[in-house]
Amino acid sequence: MTSPGSGDEIGRFLTIADAAEILAVDVATVDDLIRSGELPAIRVGTSGPWRIERAQLEVWIELQYEDARARTAFNEGEFANVFELSGARRGRIRPVD
């Protein structure tokens, strides 16, 4: 296990600046995402700094990819793939009698 601050691993929680660097955006953008509730984060203490759990950031990034794929599928044509947009998996939907 690496000791905190060794530089080998950032750790479980990221600062807003760390998350901004990972996402290649400015700190204000990450702050806006947190305050809007789009990016899950916790506050250390009642008025302390925000921290983003690394796993939550990875999930959020994956959701952004899924959203982009759905928008792309929708924009590809007049009749988008309903299964892809709905998030349903083929074979799991039963026909209605």
Automatic annotation (TrEMBL):
InterPro entries, per database record: DNA-bd_dom_put_sf, HTH_17, SinI_DNA-bd
Signal peptide from the UniProt entry: none
Listed SUPFAM superfamilies: Putative DNA-binding domain (SSF46955)
Domain Helix-turn-helix: start-end pairs: 13-62
Stored Pfam families: HTH_17 (PF12728)
Name of the molecule in the record: Helix-turn-helix domain-containing protein
Source organism of the structure: Agromyces neolithicus
